Amino acid sequence: MTSIGSDSNKEEFKEKLLEKHKEAKLVRRIVLISTIVIFLIIGSVITFGYLYIKSALEPVDPKDKKPIEVTIPIGSSSRKIASILEENKVIKDDKVFRYYVKFKNESGFMAGDYKLNQSMTFDEIIASLKSGRILQEAVFSLTLPEGKQLVEITKILSEKTGYTEEELMTQLNDRKFLEDLMAKYPTVLTDEIFQEGIRYPLEGYLYPATYSYYKEKPSIEELITPMLEKTEEIFLVYQEEMIEKDMSVHQLLTFASLIEEEATQKTDREKIASVFYNRLDQGMKLQTDPTVLYSLGEHKDRVLYDDLEVESPYNTYVITGIPVGPIANAGEMSIKATINPGETDYLYFLAAKDGEVHYAKTLDEHNRLKAKYITNQD
């Protein structure tokens, strides 16, 4: 004999089970729809990006061969050229053009007057820009050697331009001037240049190279703009490696400046970089003499023991880690060594009088090398 209460409970249980089943089905449907929507959004973004770049790489109008007169001023950087081409509607996107030029490793663009049109491909535009003619000779050129500090650079600029060293240094350390430069070069100049203890915000940022100018006396901004553009150009090449090493431009320039100041003509910079990295990994101070001299603000033929104790965020005998900022401008060899150091077990190195660099794994070994190549030859 079946109980009425029992039948009622069974029905109630079935109803709850059915309700839960409906809820679970609804949840699965919501999850499925949400997943599809997310994938559609991601797919749309990727598709849009692909189509945008694909479109930007194509001629503005393949059928329009109407000549467009374009003037490329003397001394124009690839950034400036791309901007001029976009303004004249010869290309669709200046950034895509710049990256294309970088990817193809194109250079040697000539100043001049060109007749381009909207049907031209990137390759045709590039070929045309490389066939132009120079409108005038450079008024003057100047060379910034590797390993130069800002004080030395201002002296070079002063000798070439007539600006006093004080005028140059005042402008190059002016906060408003620097913030305007940061707006132009946000991937290179960041707030790190204003960290507490930084002596000169642009120290290490003016790339060592030869620069040509086409005015008798360009403005100070016009003087250093090509140097910052060159720095930006170099670091675009190493962008991926910097991300992998979790290093900012400021940190990389700082590290590279130490290698630059320690390097000699015979030096294997990758080995020096490995020594610095090995010491950092073991929590050791870098203890590199050029940072002592920079902290002192003077050049000395020999660093004394008392000098090692100077309190400064640059002195690697006092601080742990790399200095607060670069101590000089570094060339690409030192930048490469920072990105791709050698693989060694060395913790010490010293340069002998003949420029030869000797490496050691232990302090005892280092001291023996020091006695042989430094102390006994004094």
UniProtKB/TrEMBL annotation:
Gene3D superfamilies documented for this protein: Classic Zinc Finger, Endolytic murein transglycosylase
Domain of life: Bacteria
Residues of the site described as Important for catalytic activity: 262
Residues annotated as transmembrane: 30-53
Catalysed reactions, semicolon-separated: a peptidoglycan chain = a peptidoglycan chain with N-acetyl-1,6-anhydromuramyl-[peptide] at the reducing end + a peptidoglycan chain with N-acetylglucosamine at the non-reducing end
EC number, as in UniProt: 4.2.2.29
Alphabetized UniProt keyword annotations: Cell membrane, Cell wall biogenesis/degradation, Lyase, Membrane, Transmembrane, Transmembrane helix
Principal cellular location given in the protein's record: membrane
Pfam families: YceG (PF02618)
Subcellular location: Cell membrane
Annotated membrane topology: Single-pass membrane protein
Function: Functions as a peptidoglycan terminase that cleaves nascent peptidoglycan strands endolytically to terminate their elongation.
Record family assignment: Belongs to the transglycosylase MltG family.
Protein name from the UniProt record: Endolytic murein transglycosylase
Taxonomic source organism: Bacillus suaedaesalsae
Gene: mltG
